[in-house]
Amino acid sequence: MENRLRVLRAERAWSQQDLARRLEVSRQSINAIETGKYDPSLPLAFRIAELFGGTIEDIFVSPSRRSSGAI
Amino acid sequence: MARTLAWKRYNWRLIWLSLAYATFLVGAVYGFKHGLVPSALKYLVALLPALPIIGIFAAIGRYLVEEQDEYVRMLMVRQTLWASAFTLSVATIWGFLESFDLVGHVDGYYVAVCWFFGLGVGGLVNKLAYGETGSGC
Fold this sequence. Notes:
Largest sheet of chain A: none
Distance between the termini of chain B: 9 Å
Shape of chain B: flat
Radius of gyration of chain A: 12 Å
Number of strands of chain A: 0
Oligomer: heterodimer
């Protein structure tokens, strides 16, 4: 799933390892989510959104909205 | 592969179970070869090497329960599914070939060997799909 995780992380000058530590997941998880290879569960998506002070929709692009050209 | 706490625990269990397997196997083979096993204990001694192997299956299940990193857990689940699919396919193919006397008989415990090899296949598939094996493979 397309997302803005890499951008948000870069804005805070966090490495993947920094973000992984804050979310209590592996660096590999962060890399897989950033590259769109893995879609996080809803609880993890909420944790990511809360860490960046936004909503899930602020970070993750809905596949259906993207395909309809809404975004 | 991420070295999570659950992964470290799993590896320790694997080491102990492997040591137990080697000990039981050598002991059982030696005992049977030299006629040291009493008749009443033959089934028990013959089953001893199987117990640590079953323990490894249980350790993998325990790891999946204990692993808190959902991505790493997903990789391991995929690996075990590939291992199961690989083993069932090989066993089915071999079974038919054996039924028509095209190949020789293979002892049943090779199913476990095949499954562990299948974990390697699953790790390779994970590597191709995600760039991570999902285990130490």
